[in-house]
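Give me structure tokens for this 414-residue protein.
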Amino acid sequence: MKRVATALAGIFLIAGCAIQNVRSGNLEKVAPESVGLSSSRLELAGRAMEEAIADGTIPGGVLAVVRHGKIAWLEAYGNRSVVPQTEPMTTETMFDLASCSKCVGTTLSFMQLVEQGKVRLTDNVSLYIPDFKPWTDPQTGEKVEITVRDLLTHSSGIDPYLSVKNMTERFGGNCPDSLMRVIATEAGRNFRPGTDFMYSCLNFVTLQNILQNVTGERLCDYAQENIFDALALTHTCYFPLDGKPSCGHAGLLAECCAPTEVQEDGLPLVAAVHDPIARVLNSGNSGNAGVFSNAEDLCRIAACLLNGGTVDGKRILSPATVRMMFTVPEENDPAVGRALGWDCSSSHSGLKGDLLSRDNSFMHTGYTGPSIVMDLDNDLAVIILAHRVHPTDKGSVGRLRARIANIVAGAITE
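Here you go.
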């Protein structure tokens, strides 16, 4: 994939993003107190971001808080780039969402298929992917089919990832059909479906292929039209290098993107997805990663979901579908703890902190640093956009995420 020239003047980058930001449909920005939040408490969250920048955990980031359908906090901190030059962070900056793509791209698209009657959660994956191998009991030889629900809840038992190096040696790059064939016929099945939790990017590559087989469209195209454009999002897409003609400013989105990891040539990836499966094997159109977005667009998605699938008269899902999506399936072992595409109480869910609703808050994170947490009981969303992999892939933002979740929960005054 092409690389964006990184020597552009900072003022031009900011101006390009500003042009993109001239649009209708933004959520209203209000004082925190008007929606039952304490400004002074939220400032503590900003300090936590600044501390993470000072200790080198992240070069910069954007923090946003949504309550009652309005943006109560939207602030940028630190720098969007430190290699090859330093550029300041802005609230318009777009980030590689990494695995947050699973929920805002793949899951929201897939739930539309469910409510349209095109796919059922109980359908066997083999109905859509020929020769998709079941789990086989090593003791009895019993074969158990993997279902769509198993994929969405990471309870399929399919291997978490695969070797991109081995795949490229066998098939070369850009080999989506070979990737799906390997997942279907070769990837490990580690336990009886529905009985345990194993987070797997391969689950969501499989969901991508089911969607594409059912709709006849690429996931990136389906999500763009039916989710991102339907919600009037103009800083959200799979291919920022290609621009978004629908927003009238094609080519400028790439200039809004924060860089990620420095590559062998000494330059960072910019506007090209960091995840190797998505970038190398799926060429950016991938169910596990590939979406780029900014804080304000993610605020709009969160407000839509907290409001039962609609915002400003634009509906992407029915209330019944949203309720189902945010329900931990009773059919699964309680140890799984995952709703459909979102985490509720799995072993990964500690990142949503200690004070938010235990059973009615949902989250997702991305490898590069972003996270989204929604608390349905408090009608609240916390969005952290950070690129911890810039300039190098090191450090962890796990504790930062949990600290900020606690601070925001503690800022509720109602």
